[in-house]
Amino acid sequence: MNTLSEHTDIYDICIVGAGMAGATIAAYLAPKGIKVALIDREYTEKRRIVGELLQPGAVQTLKKMNLEHLLEGFDAQPIYGYALFNNDEKFSISYNQDESTNYHGVGLHNGRFLQKIREDVLKNASVTKIHGTVSELIENTDGVVTGVKYKEKHTREVKTVNAKLTITSDGFFSKLRKDLSNNVKTVTSFFIGLVLKDCDLPYPNHGHVFLSAPTPFICYPISSTETRLLIDFPGDKAPKKADIKEHILNKVAPFLPPEFETSFANAMEDDDFKVMPNHYMAAKPVLKEGAVLLGDALNMRHPITGGGLTAVFNDVLLLSTHLLAMPNFDDPKLLHDKLELYYKDRYHANTNVNIMANALYGVMSNDLLKQGVFEYLGKGGNKSGGPITLLAGLNRNPTQLMKHFFSVALLCIGNLSGKNKLSLNNVFRIMKDAFCIIKPLAVNELRPSSFYKKNTQH
Ligand SMILES: Cc1cc2nc3c(=O)[nH]c(=O)nc-3n(C[C@H](O)[C@H](O)[C@H](O)COP(=O)(O)OP(=O)(O)OC[C@H]3O[C@@H](n4cnc5c(N)ncnc54)[C@H](O)[C@@H]3O)c2cc1C
Q: In 118, 223, 235, 437, which residue has its Cα 20 to 30 A from 327's Cα atom?
């Protein structure tokens, strides 16, 4: 096939993937006059079960970028905190420690939100929309990335785009990350998603976490009439169609609150289940001139805490801030230094979000620690207020995260003495389980900068 270089222009930035990361950075940078080529293989609205709950940290970062208006006009719902359920007990925790609603999350249809961001991007004269599938990065003889090769959707021709910087944000099945990182992704579990229609939530405008079932499940509103129910399916093999219903009926249905009865029965009848793998992938970028990774292509965590977009928007703001500190994109050495700084700074921004997500998922798979978390959060005060600011992406201090994590382990040990089960063996087992959960995450995610930088972001 011929390679036609139709785009004779040299763009400041070529963005591969107009998803949450790529479209958002384009929305932030394009109005500043930066010349962008935005490429995606699909521009129609998708129905996905990902990225439907924005934590307050994500909302605050959008505000910082003056992009908060992109959350308006498509029936997105404010989220004021979390409700936890364990057997007959339940309680809620607000994101705000006072009566205010200053900090709130947002529940939404990911596809609608993305279309809104894309619409906003494509209003800018400095953006060229390209509809096609990128196959590879193009490098010059010095190994500098100078753009990408793609197959145009409508003509099926292979074309090239030249740019001073290529941002690779092609999502969790990224084709291009192999050239820019040493990442190893693992599947931690799967999420089965269904929509409950006209369901009155026990705690309106809250995320709900259910701990009594053998497998955790969560739900939150995504519009004024719809609630997303996400059910964990453990292991690294996707459930077969026949397994899905059985899993839900046996491991979830008996633990649902009565308010869900009708909408749940209707959803089961609709039989419209979506399944997605949940990955963990620490960021291990390899610096290469002219290209940078952004979004899930660079770094992933378990979605149980809804932290993905908090990390994505943190990265979008950080990378943009470094790029905007340059007078233009004409100095490759300066550009390279900025990419290096971005990769360094993002550790601090995302340490807690990443550790929290996989640590909480690990805890939920351990009966003793799961009970401990529920009791710890139920005590209120700083024992609930502290962890929720970490979960919300509002507190970046890893010392606080470690303090709360090990306080839960100590509470579990205290519980043993109440049940006359306090023995060296049991204490050792709890501490070992806690260490096994936290140690690999700490090794991957903690850097000295995680501790000494400013810890409250907003
Ligand atoms: C089950 C699940 C639930 C989740 N829930 C939440 C949540 O509630 N809250 C939250 O904050 N995070 C959540 N996340 C994480 C969040 O959705 C992701 O972190 C986020 O969507 C990543 O954005 P991205 O732009 O990197 O990838 P994507 O949004 O996937 O975008 C990638 C884009 O690249 C395009 N593309 C891919 N390959 C090519 C190619 N070769 N050429 C051209 N275009 C290409 C795709 O079409 C797509 O538009 C969840 C994740 C999962 C798996």
A: 118
